[in-house]
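Morning - zinc ion inputs below, output right after.
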Amino acid sequence: MAKVGKSVIYGSNWVEEAFAGCEPLLLKRIRGLVEIESPSDDKQAVDRCAEAVAEMALVMGGRVRRHRRKKFGDGLELRFAGRVRGGEKLAPLMLLGHLDTVWPMGTLGMMPFRVAKGRAWGPGVLDMKAGVAMGLTAVEVLRQGDGLEREVIFLLTGDEEIGSTGSRVLTEKLARGCSAVFVLEPAQGLKGAYKTARKGVGGYVLRVTGVAAHAGVDFERGHSAIAELAWQLEKVRGFTELDRGLTVNAGVIRGGTRTNVVAAEAEAEIDVRIARAKDAGRIERKFRGLRVRDRSCVLHVEGGMNRPPMERSRATAALFHRAATLARGMGLELTEAATGGGSDGNFTAALGVATLDGMGAVGEGAHASHESVLLKDLVPRTALLAEMIRTS
Ligand SMILES: [Zn+2]
């Protein structure tokens, strides 16, 4: 573990000095962000959080652009100029994160921000307000030390937890011109692995309309939507191919009205995860190919893939290897991991832009009541992030 303070964090002296004793500042920023609650479905709340981050960026000498959204939280594009060098302009580097959380307004009352047992706790602290504070602080320190070679575009979306439908186009547009994307989502597990692969995520709804009838008097006239849906779901269950990392889960089911009525309506919501981009078409064809067994029923299939997978490309592996080498120099051991969850990094990776994810805080309990970040990793991980930016 890297030592902070008088001991060496890593070779570059001025950065070492700059990060020593940086924990109180990081904690102050994290607290500030956690205490502005920002549930994805509350635009005004997410915008308040964006406002606070924009103010911090302006103080740091950054440029701020708000991308207005009607329904979701605004997108926040922060730009920090790199060092000016004889005419030649390097492609910018992107830091990517989100300001929305899964926590409803008022959660702070039950789960207030606090520091205890070597951790900081609170709604959204790990996913991912600590990551936002780390990104800002890393850039700030680099700029003070004249260590920012490339321009940094720090993009913060406001609808990541609900699928990023409003922000995806902007994320892709900005990422296209960047040399690499560092995603400040939490690292994996308490050892804090960086994420080099993420599954793609999709969702389908199967909706069946049958023919209602009295289950006692008129049974034979009925065509049960529930029976038809059950049959369809058994087929859908067979779409899972574990060896390909392809899973299909019917997680929600509804239908029927009373036990003595043959059900006229039934529907199921299905989650799909794919590890390989080429499986998107394969699974789409399978869902669209579903046909009713009972011809008196009607089946509607809606949905599709939402996020493409982030496959472990050569470019991502190269970024990870650089990070692991830098970490070793700091006395840290850094591992990599693949995860089934998606992030906005899925979009940038799918464009072919080198993307490394999980570069934010180390902790556990994202989306759960024990959400927390480890204090001991805050400064070393921020320093590692800064080194990754500096050497990009
Ligand atoms: Zn997140």
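Note: Residues 125-144 form the longest helix (20 residues).

O.
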